Amino acid sequence: MDGIRNIVILTGAGISAESGLRTFRADDGLWEDHRVEDVASPQGFRRDPELVQRFYDARRENVIAAQPNPAHAALARLDEAWEGELLIVTQNIDDLHERAGARRVLHMHGEALSAWCLACDARHRWTGTLLEGPPCPACGEAALRPDIVWFGEMPYRMDEIFAALARADLFVSIGTSGAVYPAAGFVQQAKSARARTLELNLERSQGSAWFDETRLGPASELVPAWVEEMLG
Ligand code: APR
Question: What pTM did the predictor assign?
Answer without folding.
Answer: 0.97
